[in-house]
């Protein structure tokens, strides 16, 4: 279910301003307490922008540096597991 920005903002304000507990707010508005926690976390991490969209990604964005990109490597197939064979692979 998608909740409006105004509703999410109202819920977030109830916890600190009205001194309600998270579970109390959730029960009062018939929503999951986990959802209240999620919105509070989004608000703390990104302010009002964290509450604006109905989907908030709280994970750290993945930044891939050129050196970190996965390289295609060739792995030779072998059945010889002797020390000499391993030295040849290096």
TrEMBL record:
Coiled coil: none annotated. InterPro entries: Transposase_8 (IPR002514), Trp_repressor/repl_initiator (IPR010921). SUPFAM superfamilies: TrpR-like. GO terms for molecular function: sequence-specific DNA binding. Pfam families: HTH_Tnp_1 (PF01527). This is Transposase. It comes from Haemophilus sputorum.
């Amino acid at each position: 279910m998608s909740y409006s920005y105004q509703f999410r903002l109202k819920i977030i304000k109830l916890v600190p301003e009205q001194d309600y507990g998270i579970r109390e707010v959730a029960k009062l508005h018939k929503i999951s307490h986990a959802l209240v926690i999620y919105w509070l976390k989004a608000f703390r991490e990104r302010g009002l922008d964290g509450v604006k969209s109905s989907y908030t990604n709280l994970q750290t964005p993945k930044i891939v540096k050129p050196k970190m990109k996965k390289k295609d490597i060739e792995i030779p197939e072998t059945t010889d597991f002797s020390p000499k064979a391993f030295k040849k692979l290096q």
